[in-house]
């Protein structure tokens, strides 16, 4: 009840939790690379055992980074409705896509087989794994480190005139402002609630009414976002930011032996998830 | 003039983000009593728990432990009429102009009254009254565009939006922050007349000691999530030892009088309103002591 308006507690992406663990101290480039490969490997694995392995791995990584798993799990809460809707849609419509497997239920175009059930369960678990993994990454890496990592990993693309710096800047700003806007939104909800607004108390099927109820929050939030953007532009320009300029970095990263070991372990795990023929 | 207690807070605790790594204890046993019709200032440094405390007043935050009774409603109970509470306690946030979302001034101010389900005639009356209270001409301003207003006018519109709910208690978080001196003085006068003429109980948070001296009947000083000091502005601003311990600033008038006293002039340091302080200084000047002392 006390947390009626505490939005920021459910947003774990973009919050940095400094615990100084081994994962925090990894070279950010290698960390980002390993996490990207792991997420890809998990996204392509369709077996029960493989995904159970992935889930265990993501929880283990929370433990290593000394961040409470419960904190990562709270980041899943807002995604639950999407996971459920996705699962229902897949259950109804995907039966015909994957042939094979035992047919459990057939009615009209609805076909539920052991294969489509596998798809539903695996994609739900996969969703959770990916949220957990990306949470560990962002909770253990400051935004500055992330930018440097993105930039240096994408730098080979400069050869084909890809705007590496600009893209990494856009990503950083987007991630950086997620918690900021959560806080602004919290404030706005409180302010409008003080004027008699109430949110989410209308019947759920009256979508238009409920959307209208959100206008007193959405409109001010857009205003705030625009003025924040203006402030940011001024702040950057007053520090002589020039788009497209060659710039040097304050901190130079040097990968150590430990970093390479992590990279190798990460690669091996990913290969395992990708190519090992799991029995289930 | 003291009415019966309208806000009673006893040993109030509150923790933000409980159960996350960002857990933070904001209130550690705060006590406060506000009587009907009083004007109370809450002062204290950033992070002392002022904003957390005032959000308890209209139930935006519910107490973790301790007693909070607002106008007869006990907030530690699970089921309370939160709408009635928010109708009786008007909370004006910092930079309230951010919350304006309608295109026209009149529409924005009428948002609250419409949400109360009032008939349109009553809403119109309330909007008119609220605009009048903040010094905006109803006929002239109601159909103006909100985005074209100056900062001071926007803040008046936002304040009117709260007043239109006809609250008994008005709570303001740094009401004059970021305003130019002229708008600041205007707004302070409006708040004063709301308190003295319309008999609203007013509670405001401020960093500006001139404001505190001008408006408040009583002052609460917050530090580290607790109320550490309370009393009339005279009590607070003349207690030199405690002023220093809690690093509270004083109005410039008090500073000037203290400096005169330090130089050996016979002045009354409790005369902190501008006119009283001026009288004190004139007294010193006309006593002809200037030639004897001086620096």
From TrEMBL, chain A:
<keyword id="KW-1003">Cell membrane</keyword>
<keyword id="KW-1133">Transmembrane helix</keyword>
<keyword id="KW-0812">Transmembrane</keyword>
<keyword id="KW-0472">Membrane</keyword>
<dbReference type="InterPro" id="IPR051611">
    <property type="entry name" value="ECF_transporter_component"/>
</dbReference>
<feature type="transmembrane region" description="Helical">
    <location>
        <begin position="82"/>
        <end position="105"/>
    </location>
</feature>
<feature type="transmembrane region" description="Helical">
    <location>
        <begin position="257"/>
        <end position="278"/>
    </location>
</feature>
<feature type="transmembrane region" description="Helical">
    <location>
        <begin position="32"/>
        <end position="62"/>
    </location>
</feature>
<feature type="transmembrane region" description="Helical">
    <location>
        <begin position="162"/>
        <end position="183"/>
    </location>
</feature>
<dbReference type="Pfam" id="PF02361">
    <property type="entry name" value="CbiQ"/>
</dbReference>
<dbReference type="InterPro" id="IPR003339">
    <property type="entry name" value="ABC/ECF_trnsptr_transmembrane"/>
</dbReference>
<dbReference type="GO" id="GO:0005886">
    <property type="term" value="C:plasma membrane"/>
</dbReference>
<feature type="transmembrane region" description="Helical">
    <location>
        <begin position="117"/>
        <end position="142"/>
    </location>
</feature>
<protein>
    <submittedName>
        <fullName>Energy-coupling factor transport system permease protein</fullName>
    </submittedName>
</protein>
Automatic annotation (TrEMBL), chain B:
<protein>
    <recommendedName>
        <fullName>Energy-coupling factor transporter ATP-binding protein EcfA2</fullName>
        <ecNumber>7.-.-.-</ecNumber>
    </recommendedName>
</protein>
<comment type="function">
    <text>ATP-binding (A) component of a common energy-coupling factor (ECF) ABC-transporter complex.</text>
</comment>
<keyword id="KW-0813">Transport</keyword>
<dbReference type="InterPro" id="IPR015856">
    <property type="entry name" value="ABC_transpr_CbiO/EcfA_su"/>
</dbReference>
<keyword id="KW-0472">Membrane</keyword>
<dbReference type="InterPro" id="IPR003439">
    <property type="entry name" value="ABC_transporter-like_ATP-bd"/>
</dbReference>
<dbReference type="InterPro" id="IPR050095">
    <property type="entry name" value="ECF_ABC_transporter_ATP-bd"/>
</dbReference>
<keyword id="KW-0067">ATP-binding</keyword>
<dbReference type="InterPro" id="IPR027417">
    <property type="entry name" value="P-loop_NTPase"/>
</dbReference>
<feature type="domain" description="ABC transporter">
    <location>
        <begin position="7"/>
        <end position="249"/>
    </location>
</feature>
<dbReference type="GO" id="GO:0015087">
    <property type="term" value="F:cobalt ion transmembrane transporter activity"/>
</dbReference>
<dbReference type="GO" id="GO:0042626">
    <property type="term" value="F:ATPase-coupled transmembrane transporter activity"/>
</dbReference>
<dbReference type="InterPro" id="IPR003593">
    <property type="entry name" value="AAA+_ATPase"/>
</dbReference>
<keyword id="KW-0378">Hydrolase</keyword>
<dbReference type="InterPro" id="IPR030946">
    <property type="entry name" value="EcfA2"/>
</dbReference>
<dbReference type="GO" id="GO:0043190">
    <property type="term" value="C:ATP-binding cassette (ABC) transporter complex"/>
</dbReference>
<comment type="subunit">
    <text>Forms a stable energy-coupling factor (ECF) transporter complex composed of 2 membrane-embedded substrate-binding proteins (S component), 2 ATP-binding proteins (A component) and 2 transmembrane proteins (T component).</text>
</comment>
<comment type="similarity">
    <text>Belongs to the ABC transporter superfamily. Energy-coupling factor EcfA family.</text>
</comment>
<dbReference type="GO" id="GO:0016887">
    <property type="term" value="F:ATP hydrolysis activity"/>
</dbReference>
<dbReference type="InterPro" id="IPR017871">
    <property type="entry name" value="ABC_transporter-like_CS"/>
</dbReference>
<keyword id="KW-1003">Cell membrane</keyword>
<dbReference type="Pfam" id="PF00005">
    <property type="entry name" value="ABC_tran"/>
</dbReference>
């Amino acid at each position: 009840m006390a947390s009626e308006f505490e939005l920021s507690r459910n947003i774990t992406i973009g919050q940095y939790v400094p615990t100084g663990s081994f994962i925090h101290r990894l070279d950010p480039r290698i960390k980002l690379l390993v996490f990207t490969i792991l997420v890809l490997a998990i996204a392509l694995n369709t077996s029960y055992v493989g995904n159970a392995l992935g889930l265990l791995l993501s929880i283990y990584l929370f433990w290593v980074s000394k961040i409470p798993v419960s904190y990562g799990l709270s980041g899943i809460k807002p995604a639950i409705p999407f996971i459920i809707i996705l699962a229902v849609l897949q259950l109804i419509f995907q039966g015909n896509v994957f042939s094979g497997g035992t047919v459990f239920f057939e009615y009209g175009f609805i076909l539920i087989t052991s294969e489509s059930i596998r798809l539903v369960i695996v994609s739900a678990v996969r969703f959770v794994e990916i949220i957990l993994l990306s949470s560990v990454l962002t909770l253990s890496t400051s935004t500055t480190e992330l930018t440097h990592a993105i930039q240096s990993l994408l730098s080979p693309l400069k050869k084909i005139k890809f705007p590496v710096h600009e893209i990494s800047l856009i990503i950083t700003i987007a991630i950086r402002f997620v918690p900021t806007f959560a806080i602004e939104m919290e404030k706005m909800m409180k302010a409008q609630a003080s004027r008699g607004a109430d949110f989410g108390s209308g019947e759920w099927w009256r979508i238009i009414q409920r959307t209208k109820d959100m206008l007193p929050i959405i409109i001010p939030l857009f205003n705030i976002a625009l003025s924040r953007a203006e402030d940011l532009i001024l702040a950057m320009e007053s520090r002589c930011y020039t788009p497209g300029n060659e710039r040097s970095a304050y901190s130079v990263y040097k990968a150590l032996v430990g970093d390479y070991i992590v990279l190798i372990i990460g690669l091996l795990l990913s290969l395992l998830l990708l190519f090992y023929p799991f029995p289930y | 003039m003291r009415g019966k207690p309208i806000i009673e807070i006893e040993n109030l605790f509150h923790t933000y983000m409980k159960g996350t790594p960002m857990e933070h204890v904001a209130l550690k046993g705060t006590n406060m009593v506000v009587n009907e019709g009083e004007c109370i200032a809450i002062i204290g440094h950033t992070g002392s728990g002022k904003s957390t405390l005032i959000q308890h007043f209209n139930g935006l935050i519910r107490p973790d432990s301790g007693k909070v009774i607002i106008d007869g409603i006990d907030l530690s109970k699970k089921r309370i009429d939160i709408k009635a509470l928010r109708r009786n306690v008007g909370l004006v946030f910092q930079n309230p102009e951010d919350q304006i979302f309608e295109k026209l001034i009149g529409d924005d101010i009428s948002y609250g009254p419409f949400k109360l389900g009032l008939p349109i005639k009553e809403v119109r009356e309330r909007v008119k009254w609220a605009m009048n209270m903040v010094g905006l001409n109803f006929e002239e301003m109601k159909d103006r565009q909100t985005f074209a207003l100056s900062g001071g006018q926007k803040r008046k519109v936002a304040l009117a939006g709260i007043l239109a709910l006809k609250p008994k208690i008005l709570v303001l978080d740094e009401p004059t922050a970021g305003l130019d001196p002229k708008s600041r003085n205007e707004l302070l006068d409006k708040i004063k007349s709301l308190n003295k003429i319309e008999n609203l109980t007013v509670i405001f948070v401020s960093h500006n000691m001139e404001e505190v001296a001008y408006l408040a009947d009583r002052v609460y000083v917050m530090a580290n999530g607790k109320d550490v000091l309370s009393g009339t502005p005279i009590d607070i601003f003349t207690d030199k030892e405690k002023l220093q311990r809690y690093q509270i600033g004083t109005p410039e008038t008090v500073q000037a009088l203290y400096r005169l006293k330090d130089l050996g002039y016979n002045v009354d340091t409790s005369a902190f309103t501008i006119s009283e302080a001026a009288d004190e200084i004139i007294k010193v000047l006309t006593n002809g002591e200037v030639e004897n002392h001086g620096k």
